[in-house]
Design a protein that fits this description.
The protein is an alpha/beta fold. The protein has helices at residues 7-23, 64-80, 96-101, 120-128, 151-154, 168-184, 203-210, 219-223; strands spanning 44-51, 83-91, 108-113, 134-138, 159-163, 187-191, 213-217.
């Protein structure tokens, strides 16, 4: 069932949303989304994958670190409020191709590199090829992937590399990974029609590039104070 908004509710929500976006992109959910008058959007789904062996293997992190990451991501999920971490596969023993088949319905992928060597890049490429916004967090002494992972950037893949010991880097990148999912659930109102380049004026090109749907509202409709048609957020 579609939910509708009055003009007053829409203007109030967009004002609150604009202030929030300027100050708290990577913290709590949109203030307006917490109000009873604003339809609540589904949580952004981030598929988490652990890569590499743990324990006594060469350049491997302790097995206990898996639980630490799970706890950390659980706390991040609670803090953000609009993110849901799913998955949790460990490669190996799970095959990367099998994990890639599970990504349907996910909005992004978070790879935690625990250990490995140069051969990891082709294996993980099966996940990168899914085309979802992807981040790879790799702590120091996690292997030699740093020599090979940058090739994805040269191939213009949608992946952010985080070679860092600072776990808060995960907070920031997950906060940003919500944006593509939000855009796919967004309608942009172009009052009077769009301006700029041909691509910027094309609703089809905008939706292909950003995922957002553009709705053109003629000036006549605004100047004549015609009652606006209800525009509900995309599901």
């Amino acid at each position: 069932m579609k939910q509708t908004l009055t003009r007053r509710q829409f203007l109030g929500a967009t004002a609150a949303g604009g202030a929030w976006l300027l100050t708290r992109l990577s913290t709590r959910p949109l203030i307006a989304a917490e109000a009873d008058t604003w339809p609540k959007l589904p949580a952004v789904k981030i598929y988490k994958v652990y890569v590499g062996r743990t324990g006594d293997f060469y350049l491997a992190h302790p097995t206990e670190e898996l639980a630490k990451f799970d706890n950390y991501l659980g706390e991040l999920e609670r803090k953000l409020g609009d993110v849901k971490f799913i998955g949790g596969d460990l490669i190996p023993p799970t095959d990367a191709g099998q994990v890639a088949e599970k990504l349907t319905g996910a909005d992004g992928v978070l790879l935690i590199h625990l250990s490995g060597h140069g051969g990891d890049a082709p294996v993980l490429g099966k996940l990168i090829e899914a085309g979802l916004p992807t981040a790879l967090f790799s702590q120091p002494f996690s292997g030699h992937g740093w020599m090979y992972f940058p090739q994805w950037h040269k191939q213009h893949k949608k992946v952010v590399l985080l070679p860092s010991s600072d776990w808060s880097e995960i907070d920031r990148v997950v906060g940003l990974m919500r944006v593509p999912a939000w855009l796919r659930r967004t309608r942009i109102l172009a009052v009077g029609g769009p301006h700029g380049t041909a691509a910027a004026c094309s609703a089809e090109a905008m939706q292909k590039q950003l995922g957002a749907e553009m709705v053109i509202v003629p000036n006549e409709r605004v100047s004549n104070h015609a009652p606006p048609a209800a525009v509900a957020p995309k599901n």
